[in-house]
Amino acid sequence: MPNNTAFEQSDTVMPHTPSSVTPSSAVPESVTIVEVSPRDGLQNEATLLPTETKLELIDHLVASGLRRIEATSFVHPKRVPQMADAEAVSAALPRGEVSWIGLVLNERGLDRAIAAGLDEVNIVVVASDTFSRRNQGTSTDEGVDLWNRLAKRASDAGLKTTVTIAAAFGCPFEGEVPTERVADLIRRCSDAQPDEIALADTIGVGVPAQVVALADAARREAPGIPLRWHFHNTRNTGYANALTALQLGASALDASLGGIGGCPFAPAATGNIATEDLWYLLDRSGCATGVDPAVLLSGARRLGEMLGTTVPGQLSRAGLFPPVELPPA
């Protein structure tokens, strides 16, 4: 059953207004973390986890208190073999507390997401033509047209809709992406009345000044639509960008347990910002997330065992401050 409260904001979250976009030194009292490790995290890992192991990971995430989780993507298994079990994962998801998100790229993907009974769909429009063709086989303009069709169908089926504008901070093939181009895409995509717009630094090239410029563009072109941000830490700017977005009134921030992930179709697109590291930044800044750090860190360590590697996130190695003895993974 779709969760119709997933996008409701509490009175403690900074509202979206068309006023000044200069970051405040203060942060909102709370923000939503959207967990993407089961999808964006695992899709770029060489290790193919079996369905039951993915569900163990998801159990850790739910137990930690995360309540919006991108569980899978409905894409062709030959293109992204890590997501070949999307239906099996969806069928086993615990329902009731979490709003479950699926990424879709085309009509067939949306058919599968609706049949799987997910609560939300994340539909991607890529800001550059070259990357769009490599990622989805369409031009950017074709991607906007597709978004408009899919958004209506998803909404009619009772699913919440997010349009993610990928490569909004830069393209691995074309280089700089002008703010004006992203602003135009925001305006055109807002015509379909998404429940949320997400701006993605898909290859981790963005800096806080770009966050400010894009937040200004979003407020100008799509006033009142909640704004979500997706950052990678490829060049160690992801957390600075997240803090800037938070100060500008972000409704949600994406993160991936352990900092795993990236885009398999973008060269050198390394991991997302780590959920546990983001939690530490937010918590020490006075911003509540509803997440239990002990369970989160236990999950990050267990994820490293699942993948047979050390996850990129720092907090699972450095530990909490002040020091706290944590349970085993």
UniProtKB/TrEMBL annotation:
<feature type="domain" description="Pyruvate carboxyltransferase">
    <location>
        <begin position="31"/>
        <end position="297"/>
    </location>
</feature>
<dbReference type="InterPro" id="IPR000891">
    <property type="entry name" value="PYR_CT"/>
</dbReference>
<dbReference type="InterPro" id="IPR013785">
    <property type="entry name" value="Aldolase_TIM"/>
</dbReference>
<dbReference type="GO" id="GO:0006552">
    <property type="term" value="P:L-leucine catabolic process"/>
</dbReference>
<dbReference type="GO" id="GO:0046951">
    <property type="term" value="P:ketone body biosynthetic process"/>
</dbReference>
<feature type="compositionally biased region" description="Polar residues">
    <location>
        <begin position="1"/>
        <end position="11"/>
    </location>
</feature>
<dbReference type="GO" id="GO:0004419">
    <property type="term" value="F:hydroxymethylglutaryl-CoA lyase activity"/>
</dbReference>
<keyword id="KW-0479">Metal-binding</keyword>
<dbReference type="GO" id="GO:0046872">
    <property type="term" value="F:metal ion binding"/>
</dbReference>
<dbReference type="InterPro" id="IPR043594">
    <property type="entry name" value="HMGL"/>
</dbReference>
<feature type="region of interest" description="Disordered">
    <location>
        <begin position="1"/>
        <end position="27"/>
    </location>
</feature>
<protein>
    <submittedName>
        <fullName>3-hydroxy-3-methylglutarate-CoA lyase</fullName>
    </submittedName>
</protein>
<feature type="compositionally biased region" description="Low complexity">
    <location>
        <begin position="12"/>
        <end position="27"/>
    </location>
</feature>
<keyword id="KW-0456">Lyase</keyword>
<dbReference type="Pfam" id="PF00682">
    <property type="entry name" value="HMGL-like"/>
</dbReference>
<comment type="similarity">
    <text>Belongs to the HMG-CoA lyase family.</text>
</comment>
